[in-house]
Write a structure and sequence with these properties.
Elements lengths: L22 H23 L1 H28 L3 H53 L11 H28 L1 H19 L1 H9 L4 H42 L4 H17 L4 H17 L1 H27 L7 H21 L1 H15 L10 H40 L1
């Protein structure tokens, strides 16, 4: 028997991977890169148009509830409903301008009549309260008030002309507003077909998710604007009647009421203070301390009513947003898009919060923080005291009832 010896190669088996690109694959990669670069360049060049389209889509979301209400109640077509809303908005803007110009003229004449007394009164108050003088201490003469009156009157007379000249000279601004109005009209009037077109590009499961997000956008945006408008009307009416009650001229009370109601409702956090401060200061200057304190009292009382009763009832089914998130969203929106960004930041933040709560997974928190144990102990102690007080009250009621029963038996 012959043993056959086979030599084994101890060299490790090295597998070589050969990567090869076919010509058409390489051209596809190059084409995707070029298309991406062209797309980014186009977006950059048309950034203003992209912003206008985004703003138009946002405003169309805000108009959707009103359009649905008009079409359901009066059987109008969606285009006609949007046209009526546009007409109402235009009438409102013209009305505000008509109210504002005479108000400035009235304020100018009031300053011309009493401005010197106001300024000298402030100087005297500063001297009596803080012990220092402003300027030379001799006070102001009538020239200061007269100069300010002339400036305000000239501004009031030229305001309409300035607005018209701005509108005619700033063709870019007019074009942007017209573009936004047209896109908003299309997005709102043709919303059902537009929604179906977008959802038709997605698979079934993704359609449900995007459709839910779309509905939430309409609910959050429309609910925010309409609930804020109701609060603005209520607050503005309260401002108006309070200032007329303390003797403010109607020509001044009306624009101040519109200003106070709008700013305090639509500007987050600091709007409450700004919207109340201007009417209070002007009431102080024109009517004196007591009327201004009455207006201040109205502001304080109304804010409590709005925060604890009106706002929860009106906004309970629409937007629910943490105060810190609202304030931070306003700052972030203002930093990105200026006043308009701050204006629309709250519904956008509420929409993002709703999307995160629905699509981002959440887990139960098993960890207990140290302060939670302390707060739990305080809460238990408070509950025990309240239970003890309730037990004492119940014992007193029962003793009182027993005495009544004993008297009846006797």
């Amino acid at each position: 028997m012959t043993d056959t010896v086979r030599e084994q190669d101890d060299t490790p088996d090295i597998r070589r991977v050969r990567i090869s690109f076919e010509t058409h694959t390489l051209w596809k990669v190059v084409g995707v890169i070029l298309l991406t670069m062209v797309g980014l360049w186009a977006v950059r060049e048309a950034s203003s148009l992209v912003v206008l389209v985004g703003m138009s889509f946002f405003f169309s979301l805000a108009l959707q509830p009103a359009v649905l209400w008009l079409t359901a109640r009066y059987s109008w077509r969606r285009g006609a409903a949007v046209g009526v809303i546009y007409l109402a908005g235009a009438i409102g803007m013209v009305g505000l301008i008509v109210i504002l110009i005479p108000a400035v003229a009235t304020l100018a004449s009031t300053i011309g009549e009493s401005g010197t007394d106001w300024l000298n009164g402030v100087i005297k108050w500063a001297e009596d309260t803080f012990g220092f003088t402003i300027g030379s201490g001799a006070g102001f003469d009538d020239n200061v008030a007269t100069t300010l009156e002339d400036e305000l009157i000239s501004w009031a007379k030229g305001s309409i002309g300035n607005v018209l000249s701005f509108a005619t000279s700033s063709l870019g601004f007019v074009f942007n507003m017209a573009t936004m109005a047209m896109f908003t009209f299309y997005f709102t009037a043709d919303a059902p077909r537009f929604q179906r077109t977008v959802l038709g590009l997605l698979p079934t499961q993704r359609q449900k998710e995007i459709g839910w997000a779309w509905d939430q956008a309409i609910i959050q945006t429309g609910g925010y604007f309409y609930s804020r408008m109701v609060l603005m009307v209520i607050n503005g009416a309260g401002f108006f009647f309070t200032m007329v009650l303390v003797g403010m001229p109607v020509a001044l009370a009306l624009p101040l009421a519109v200003f106070g109601g709008f700013v305090s409702v639509f500007i987050p956090a600091i709007g409450t203070y700004i919207g109340g401060a201007i009417p209070i200061v002007l009431t102080l200057a024109i009517q004196g301390w007591i009327p201004s304190l009455i207006v201040l009292g109205y502001v304080l009382v109304y804010q409590q009513i709005e925060n604890y009763w009106l706002s929860p009832r009106i906004s309970s089914k629409t937007m629910s947003l943490n105060g810190a998130v609202a304030f931070g969203g306003a700052l972030f929106g203002g930093a990105i898009a200026g006043p308009m960004g701050a204006f629309i930041s709250l519904p956008v933040a509420a929409l993002i919060t709703a999307l995160v709560s629905n699509f981002v997974p959440h887990h139960d928190v098993d960890y207990t923080f140290s302060y939670e144990e302390h707060e739990a102990a305080i809460s238990d102690a408070r509950g025990a005291k309240e239970a003890e007080k309730e037990a004492e009250k119940e014992a007193k009621r029962q003793a009182k009832q027993d005495r009544k029963d004993s008297r009846k038996k006797a």
